[in-house]
Every structure is written in structure tokens, then in C-alpha cells.
Amino acid sequence: MTLAPRPASEQKEIRRIAFQGSGGSLFGIYIVNYFLTILTLGIYSFWGKVRVRRYLFGQTQFEGDRFAFHGTGLELFLGTLKAIGIFLLPIMLLSILPDLLALPDVAKTIARFLVWLLFMTFLPVAMVGARRYRLSRSSWRGIRFSFRGGVREFLKIFWTGGLLSTITLGLYYPFFEMRQQSYFIGHTRFGTQGFDFDGKGRDLFWSFLLTAALLPFTLGVSWVWYLAKKRRYFWEHTHVGSARFRFPITGGMLLGLYAVNLLLLIPTFGLAWPWALVRNARFACRHLSLEGPLDLGSITQEAMDASATGEGLAGILDTDFGVGV
Amino acid sequence: MRAEGDVRTVRTEWTGSYLDGKAPVRRPASIRVLRRGLEITLEEGTVLQWFYRDVRQAQGFYAGEEVRLERGGDLAEVLLVAEPGFLVSLHRIGKEAVGHLHDPRRRSRRATFTLLAAVGALGGSLAVYFWLIPFVADSLAVRVPVAWEERLGRSVTEELAPPGRHCRDPQLAQAVGKIVERLGGALPGTPYKFRVFVVNDRRVNALAAPGGYILVFRGLLERARTPEELAGVLAHEIQHVIRRDVTRALLRQASSGLLLRAVMGDAAGVMTYGLEAARALAALKYSREAEAAADAEGLRLLLAARIDPASMLAFFEQLLAAERRSSRLPPYLSTHPETLDRLIRLRAMVSEPRADMPTPLLPEADWQSLRLRCAPGAKPTRNE
B164 at the A interface (CB within 8 A)? Predict the structure, then answer.
């Protein structure tokens, strides 16, 4: 935890991440959350979500300092209410009303198209909104993260990428993913310090193709191999200034992690979920490091506020976009 | 802000780190714990005074976690102290002024609370499942307008048996229509219009959708030896509709799914839930009470329509016997619990003496050929 200057002879600066949480503590948090959620008929779940996040962030250390999550339950609750108003309500009305009012088939088709259009619009909006919210509520050493990407830019990436992936029967998908990652990382900041991503779609294209071709013969296991490769590639093409992340994991390592998690979860009917979560976090932190010079002294606070509506939307759409670890 | 007299035995000097909320730099700080606040001295000599009432705790609630105190708005100043004993001395000296900060001496209470919460969670889940959901669904079911039930019923039947799979034989339709008419005639004042469709499906089954839609599968029709036997099944299903058992069961299923999702912490998939529930209609189970009531009321309906009630019992017995012989057949009756009890009760009701004589259903129709008209080419299911 000291900030003693490193010897000049040390060419490579390596910074590591550590996760110190325990499954037992997390389980306790989940139990209390579940109890209060039932007692309040679901309302408490937003506060519970915040407690879990605060714990997970607080247990993650980088250079001896813990991350912190600053979101609140009330924020999440109001964000979800807003998201229900602008998204869920129109969708429900559009999908139920034409039947209830016995409208002609043309109206039903139009309603169905509108539902689809709403989905295709709100899904990317939620992805951006959730990221904005989460990063704006995350800090390390008192400095906030932020996300500065515009929604319009992502809508373009999402729609063209989705369209091209459909037309090419999925062949475009690795390029699509790469463009999303580039957008998400490229607009992420820590204080005044930006992150950069320099991955290229063609680097993963052949692995993707091979995995897809082998999928039926490996009963899906080849997908884990591709996942490991992709996660490693994504991290290792992410920089902060001239420092670069290292994440040397292999498909075998990831498969081992998943297999043990399944062995924990199946016999306990999912009750071991907190332990699986802690195992995932430990795995990520054990392998992730930041290499190269990083001048923390030149970074200053530059926070940007964000509303929780996008986070609420993401909750409704059942999408979970991990931030960082 | 002076520490005095009785607190001399408590450690008041601590060391930690200070973050100013402007740069990611940890600055060593020495801290004095006073009655109403903290006196923080930074390395270069700056002295900060933090009143307890302005301070909030963000971390340090769990063993091994650094204590993190914050002061100020969103981009707060932060004070970090590694030793948990710091919090204890805060409470010793600050007393009620630090009541809003965590006290590590109370952690054992948290363990007790967690245990109680676990017990409570289990009890709460059971109460919600067995009491709250049925209560909510039941009180909603009687308030759903019939017009909504009809529309729901129509989309559910279209989902389960698209019109292309209906039997379109006009003579059969006419015969079934006459049976429904006779039963409906004995139900004055019902808000429902009963629509019975024969589905070209060899399964032996019949089911009711909300709002008066009833599906009879070809397999069941072919097994009905007389029109009265089919009428018995229809009377039973009609009672499920009138008593809103289907609507109630769909609501129960939908609300338990919704609640499960709420508890899991995401309000997800709410809009798709209605459809999922509709698809599961075939697998819906009614409660024992609902089945007994549909039997009893169905039987009463047969009597009111002057249809021989013994045929209902005979048909159920025949179906049960066939199901026992061959487990290959998807069952109509055994989806209902306590089938034997039901048969015994039906038998008792049928044997009660009655004044008016039943009049035959479809006396001039050739039922034996009618019941096979749905799939003339198909080999009829063997009957005895």
C-alpha cells in the first residue's frame, strides 16, 4: 500500500488487480436481500443490487486501493420506473391492445412491427445508458470513471452491424463485436485519462469460423475456447496511455472455471451462486494486469453525471454488461 | 473539538490516507479522534477538520475491509484507515455523534440477523407461493371482463390449435353444435358464448381456454361411444370456463413467474410472460377443489339439460381404464389429481334418485360414423 517510487532499473511496470471478497459474506448479503425483497414485494431488490455491487467493488483492489461504487438503490428504483414508462408500457400496450380491441390484421401487423422497432432501438440505448451510469458511479482513489460515447453513434454501429451479420449469416459477427468493443472502450475514461482499443475484426474472424464449424462436434465446448480467446484479445488490445492490459488466459483455464462452477451450482440448485461469482472475480483478477508506464499524477478528476434510466432499461431487457473486471 | 478526561484510555491517534477527490494520489494523514469530529493532518502540514455529522461511511463493513469515510458531495474527499479498531475508538469517543457509522462490535448481531433473514426468506417464499399468489390471482380472475377473457381465449386457442388443424366436417360440426346448444340452453343468463372446436390430433384430451373456447381432440371424440359421453366432457369443461378456473390458473402462473423475476432482481421479460403462460395452457393443473366443483356442476348441468348423467361417469371410467392399460397415451384424466376420488363421488351423485327422465341426445344421428369423421382416412382408435 505504499507509494514508494519504483527503481528506475525496472523497465516494465506491472500493476496487478486483486479480489478479496468471500463467497460466505456475499451469500449473507444475498440472503438478507432476498428476505427484504420478499417482504417489500420486490421493491428492495434495487437496494439489494447496490449492496452487492458495493461489496464486489470494495473487494477489488488495484495498486493497493479499492474500487468504490457510488450508486444508490433509490436511483436504480426511479431509473427502472422511468424505463417502464418509456419502454415497457408502450410495448405491453402495443402487444396486448390490438388483440383486446380486436383490431384488423393490418393494425396488428403494424403494432408488431412497432414492438420490434422499439426493441431494436431500446436495446442499444440500454447498452449505452447502463455503461454510462455504471462508470459514472465507479471510482478508484476518489477519481470517477466516465463514459462519453454518444447514443447516435452506437445506434449506427448496432443497426448496420446487426443488418450485416444477418445478411452474411453471421460471418460479419466478429467484426460487429469488434466495432462495439472499440466504441465502448474508446469512449471510457478514468478522470481525464482515456482508454483506447486497437483490435481488428479479422484477427478473430478465422477463430470464430473454426469455432462455429466445430460447434456441433464439440457439443458447444469449442465456444468456451473462442470466448477465452476473445476476452484475452479484447483486454490485450486495450490501453491506458502507453500502458497495456495483459490477460493471458486459455480456453482450458476458462473451461476449468466453468466446470467447477457448474459442479457447485447444480447440486445446490443455484444456491452456490455467490461462490461462483467470487470464483469468476478471482479468476479475472488473478490473470489481469496492466503493464507499462502510467503517470497517475497527471490524471485529474473529470466526472460526468448520468441518469439511471439506461440502467433501468438494461435491467428490464435482462442484459448485463460487465464493466471492466 | 477537544478530547477530554474519560476517554484517555482510548486510542485517539491513528494514521491513514487522504484522497482529495481531484487527483488519484494517496496522501499520508495522521488522524486525531475528537468528540465531535476528526482532525486530519496531512504530510505537508495542512490541517482538516471533519465534523462527524458531515461524514458518511462507504466501506469497512466487513472483516478485513479498509474503513472508508467520505465528506462532501458526489466527488467527495476520502479518508482511508486500514485498522478496524479505528471505528471502535470513534464510537467510544464520539458516542451518539457517530451513530450513523458502522460499529464493528455489532458484527455478531449482523450474523444473527442474516440467520433470521434466511429463516424468514424461506417462510416468506412459502407464504408467497401458497397464499399470496393464489389470493392475488383469485381476486383478479373474477374481475377480468368477459370480453377480455374471450379475446385471450381466442388467441390462446389459435396458438394451441391453428384453424388449419380444426376438423371442418359440416355434419360433425352440426352435431357438436347441437350438443353445445342443448347444454347452453340449460345455462340461462351465462355471459359466455361457448365455442367448441374439434382438433385433428390423435391425443385423448379436451381443454378449456378462457372466455368459452373449448378444444376437443380427435382422440377423445373417437373414444366417446355415445353423444352423451361427449356431452359429459363438455359439461365439465364448460364449468371450468364459467367458474373461471382457466383464467385463474393462467393468472397464478403468470404472477408466480413475475414474482420470481422480481425476486431475482430483474423486472425482465414481463411482456413475453403472458404468451409463455398461454403456451403452457395444455399443462395447466387445476386444484382438487376446482375439479370436484367442475364435476359436480357439470353433472348438474347435464341433469338440467336432461342428458343422462351416467354417461359422464361411464366415459371417465372408460378413459381411466384405457390410460391404465397403456401409458403411451397422453392422459386426459390423470392430469387431474385424485381421479379415483372423483369417480367415487360422481358415482354417488349419479345414483341419487331423480324425478325427470333424460331424453336422448341426437336421436336421429349416426354417432358411430359421426365420431370418426374428423380423420376419415386415419385408423380409428380401438374401442371396446
Answer: no
